Amino acid sequence: STKIYDSNYNILLIHEPDTADSFQEYPYDLVLSGHSHGGQVNIPFIPAINQKAISSTNLAKNYVSGMYELNSKTKIYVNTGIGTTHVSGRLGVVPEISIFHIYL
Predict the structure, then answer these.
(1) Within 13 Å, how many C-alpha atoms sit on residue 73's CB side?
(2) CA-CA distances (angstroms) from residue 65 to 2, 3, 103?
(3) Separation in Å, CA 103 to CA 21, 79, 89, 100
């Protein structure tokens, strides 16, 4: 088995961001994820439509896009990606490709 050491900078790559909660017992510093397409629909001032779009994307309800703090040690970044799901289009959600420079 692989050991995860507190002394290392540990990165977890997962597809579905909400599953990051089940890894909080491990000493990950950064979680990188996608899956949500940023909710795919984001209309300002109409949260009901946005919530319906997000809820159709299982396992991406808590962490939809951007940076979040899972706990005092771990952050998660959810990329909106460049694709779509269910409907071929996006509304109010900019596609993205992220580049990370990690300096230790």
Answers:
(1) 13
(2) 30, 29, 23
(3) 25, 20, 36, 10
Q: Please give the Cα distance from 84 to 67 (Å, whole number).
A: 21
Residue 7 CA to its chain's centroid (Å):
25
Q: What is the pTM of this model?
A: 0.79
The domain ranges of the chain are 11-78
Q: C-alpha angle with apex 35: 27 to 72, nearest 5 degrees?
A: 25
CA distance 76 to 31: 4
Instruction: Read off the pLDDT of residues 41-98 as tens digits, 9 standing for 90 and up.
Output: 777 777 666 555 555 556 677 888 899 999 999 999 999 888 777 777 777 788 899 9
29, 10 contact by CB (below 8 A): yes
